[in-house]
Amino acid sequence: MPIDMELEAVLRPTQYPMPPYPPKTITLANGKVMVVRQAVREDVPAILKSVHPCLFIERDYYDIVSARLYGELLAWYRYRVKSEYCLMGQVDGYLVGIVNGRMENEKVGMSYHTLAIDRGLRIGSHLFAAKMEYHLEYLGQEEVLIVAESPIGFRRWMIEYPLEATKIPHELGGGDSYLLTREIYFKAKPRLVVGDRPVSQELMAEAEAEIKFADDDTIRERIAGLKGR
Ligand SMILES: CC(C)(COP(=O)(O)OP(=O)(O)OC[C@H]1O[C@@H](n2cnc3c(N)ncnc32)[C@H](O)[C@@H]1OP(=O)(O)O)[C@@H](O)C(=O)NCCC(=O)NCCS
Predict the structure, then answer these.
(1) Residue 97: which residues within 8 A CB-CB, separation 6 or more?
(2) Is the CB of 79 inside a 6 Å radius of any atom of ligand 1?
(3) 58, 61, 119: which to mutate for ligand 1, most atoms within 8 A of CB?
(4) Helix (H) or strand (E) holding 216
(5) Domains of the chain
(6) pLDDT along the chain (229 residues), means of 10
(7) Are 216 and 53 in contact (CB under 8 A)?
(8) Rounded to two decimals, what is the model's pTM?
């Protein structure tokens, strides 16, 4: 279908210039090395292959978080959201976690979602820390607005950092936003933000060669355990 570029110019939101997130590696508790790197728009279809099986897992709110993340990534792919970014974690090329968010304006970041596809290794925690690192240290923002959709998310972000409660509505339409300020981030950084740079050429080449996705049963088992099948 031909695209009417004149109309597209109206439908497509403004994009702020966004400096790249420099990739890093994190050695997980099982000894495996996770490459954390920024996705490009063209990666979205490959990423969605790993998000799709999670739509049907009710355990720990995986269904709602995945459904929203799926829509947000599509909105980015189809140019229907302002200044979105996506960071991902890969182990041996396999996608093991995803985080996304966007710039509300130059100073304020809007955190969207965190999805850990392999569990028990704090992959979600490491990736959430990477996205806060991106907002504050690379986009140079003052603060990030965050809500939790699950009790585990609430424990991981609101309590572990800890974030500041506000009365500011969040774009996701849930409870009021919690705030990550520069002060909170830099205080939490030594505890929560880890990783080594630069990433070796071999690991980067493996991660970039293909965003591999595990089959549905493997993903379900990793997230919900054998009983979740
Ligand atoms: C929230 C989330 C990103 C945290 O990821 P994480 O830091 O890698 O943490 P895990 O999910 O591995 O573990 C969280 C807890 O679940 C439990 N858990 C770990 N592995 C598990 C498994 N295979 N099955 C069930 N529970 C498990 C543990 O009790 C762990 O508690 P801990 O705090 O003692 O470590 C992840 O749980 C997730 O993607 N949840 C669904 C989406 C979501 O809620 N996103 C956040 C929205 S605010």
Answers:
(1) 34, 88, 89, 114, 115, 116, 117, 118, 123, 124, 126, 127
(2) no
(3) 119
(4) helix 216-224
(5) 23-228 (3.40.630.30)
(6) 88 95 98 98 98 96 98 98 98 98 98 97 98 98 97 98 98 97 98 98 98 94 74
(7) yes
(8) 0.96
